[in-house]
Specification:
Chain A: GO terms for molecular function: ATP binding. The complex is a heterodimer of chains A (265) and B (313). With 265 residues, chain A is an alpha/beta fold. Chain A is 40% helix and 23% strand. Classes of the chains: A alpha/beta (265), B mainly alpha (313).
């Protein structure tokens, strides 16, 4: 609700749709030594959209996430989170960003509640407010009754749901998830995906979901295909099928990435 | 900020509006959260607490007892009489606790970085130097728990401070109002700032190391190349004049070892005195190491930026 209003306010005030994007990446390139990890990458994530970043391992997804989360700065191009330049206004940008990292980042010796209140504190919320938000977030992922348990006792899927709850504690406008379903069984995967889709619909946040699992795509999603540090395709699912000249997303993705491989050779 | 004013005016919204900028209370909440997590994690790892305690106690009970007959310590400041070797070595063992704790938390930082816990810390909107500094204070708080537990046990081994009585209060119109901490025990209080400053210095050094170490190597590497040289080439186990007798070069190395000064700062503070040279060296090194660590974690210049994603990504 709040988020929706804020985003609307922002969009109407600036009068241009581009600043209203939850995430806006423009012409970002990044190299480590001689290796070029990202090559002129531009992409958008609209508020209330579920955007899938599709790419094989080594496509540059992790580098892109490191730049958006400001583990290190982009050397060229611009990254905006809800209109805030990540380099020029890092605090404002990071305040509106929620992240679920690929690796497990909860303290397994601490309880769910302790993990979440720690994260709320990192965003500057006082003790009472942190607890309130933690319980609220745990309710949305259906784990509030286990708030006092240690994370150690949770299954992989449950731990992931807690991490999603944690990333939502501070009402972000943009949620990044880096391969969130890797290593989960089918049921857990399904519940993680449906929770995040619900967040998109109910809270109007923009989600960027990085994956190499093509079956996670829904017809209505926006797709970005990355390969070897470049964006090959960006648009709707039907558009992807057309661009890849195929009847299903998997073949379309294969055709797209193989074309570039052939061109490069 | 336009969006937040818009949010605030919509009165029907149940949430508090999101803070539009970083407030002072937010800084405090963030700081408290980080320190609290460090302490909580430490208390939950009972093995770590135990081994942190057993290590200096083994040195005190066994090593020092054996060495007592070999090494006589003459009267050097701050001691006013001949002291037993146990008494001499105790401040060095406090330094050892700080050293191990600092290296352990720096190693956990490398581990954190690989598992991503460090990254969750660094996506906080608060300035990075502030996050790192808070983390450092968290480490020092953990060290303080260890130090005072050790001192409590060592008390019964007759390791006791010896400092002049410390008046706490005000003199109003020639009349002293307040109370006095009785003579030996106030050493436990005067040693506190020395512990904190030394802990900060070693912690900042560890923090810098954590950005340099590429991957989670085992603790043995840090032990061989950092902890042992720092600990043995210092005044922790033997007075420096003893070292000079055997090797003038080693003596010079010890003199330039910041750990020597941390130990001496603690030693003098335990007896209610301030050793100015040690204080300046430790304070200076703290600032230097901290600056290096903050630089290393700087997103645009630092070492982390040059390295790229780790092996896991």
């Amino acid at each position: 609700m709040l988020r929706r209003k804020m985003v609307d306010a922002l969009t109407s005030q600036k009068g241009s749709s581009s600043t209203g994007e939850a995430l806006r990446v423009r012409n970002v390139s990044h190299s480590f030594g001689d290796t070029r990890a990202l090559n002129d990458v531009s992409l958008d994530v609209a508020p209330g959209s579920f955007t899938i970043l599709l790419g094989l391992n080594g496509a540059g997804k992790s580098t892109l996430f490191s730049l958006i989360t400001r583990l290190y700065d982009n050397t060229s191009g611009e990254i905006h989170i809800l209109g805030n330049d990540v380099r020029r206004r890092p605090s404002a940008a990071l305040q509106r960003l929620g992240v679920v990292f690929q690796s497990r980042t909860l303290d397994s010796d601490l309880t769910l509640l302790q993990n979440l209140t720690y994260h709320a504190a990192l965003h500057g919320f006082g003790r009472r407010e942190s607890k309130r938000r933690a319980h609220e977030a745990l309710k949305t992922v259906g784990l509030d009754e286990r708030a006092k348990e240690k994370v150690r006792n949770l299954s992989g899927g449950q731990a992931r749901r807690v991490e999603i709850a944690r990333s939502m504690l501070h009402d972000p406008g943009l949620l990044l998830l880096d391969e969130p379903t890797v290593g989960l069984d089918i049921d857990s995967r399904q519940s993680v995906i449906s929770i995040v889709r619900r967040l998109v619909n109910e809270h109007g946040i923009g989600v960027l979901w990085a994956t190499h699992l093509i079956d996670e795509i829904d017809k209505t999603d926006k797709i970005i295909v990355m390969h070897k540090g470049r964006v090959l395709y960006s648009g709707s699912v039907p558009g992807l099928l057309e661009a890849g000249q195929a009847n299903d997303p998997a073949s379309a993705f294969r055709n797209l990435t193989e074309t570039t491989r052939a061109e490069a050779a | 900020m336009s969006i937040d004013t818009m949010a605030e005016t919509s009165a029907s919204v149940p949430h508090k509006p999101m803070p539009s900028h970083l407030t002072f209370s937010g800084f405090f909440a963030c700081f408290r959260g980080i320190v609290w997590r460090e302490v909580l994690r430490f208390l939950h790892q009972r093995e770590r607490f135990l081994s942190a305690l057993v290590r200096p106690l083994v040195w005190l009970f066994i090593f020092a007892a054996g060495f007592r007959q070999v090494l006589g310590v003459s009267i050097i400041p701050p001691y006013q009489t001949y002291v037993l070797y146990e008494t001499y070595v105790a401040p060095g063992l406090l330094g050892m606790i700080l050293l191990f704790n600092a290296m352990q938390s720096s190693l956990s930082m490398v581990y954190d970085r690989e598992t991503g816990a460090m990254r969750t810390l660094l996506v906080s909107p608060y300035p990075r130097w502030f996050l790192l500094f808070s983390k450092l204070i968290g480490g020092v708080s953990v060290a303080l728990l260890q130090v005072y537990t050790f001192l409590a046990i060592a008390y019964f081994w007759e390791i006791q401070p010896d400092a002049a009585a410390l008046p706490v209060g005000l003199t109003i119109g020639g009349q002293f109002v307040g109370f006095e901490i009785p003579a030996p025990y106030n050493g436990y209080i005067t040693v506190l700032p020395a512990i904190i400053l030394s802990g900060l210095m070693l912690g900042a050094f560890g923090l810098f190391l954590s950005s340099v170490i590429r991957q989670l190597e085992n603790f043995a590497g840090v032990m061989n190349f950092v902890i042992f040289p720092m600990f043995f080439a210092s005044s922790a186990l033997y007075p420096l004049w003893r070292i000079r007798e055997s090797s003038p070069l080693l003596y010079e190395i010890c003199r330039f070892n910041p750990f020597t000064h941390a130990v001496e700062l603690i030693r003098f503070a335990f007896y209610g005195q301030l050793d100015p040279t040690s204080f300046y060296v430790v304070a200076g090194c703290t600032i230097l190491f901290l600056a290096c660590a903050i630089y290393a974690y700087n997103p645009s210049k630092g070492l982390i930026a040059r390295r790229g994603p780790g092996a896991r990504s």
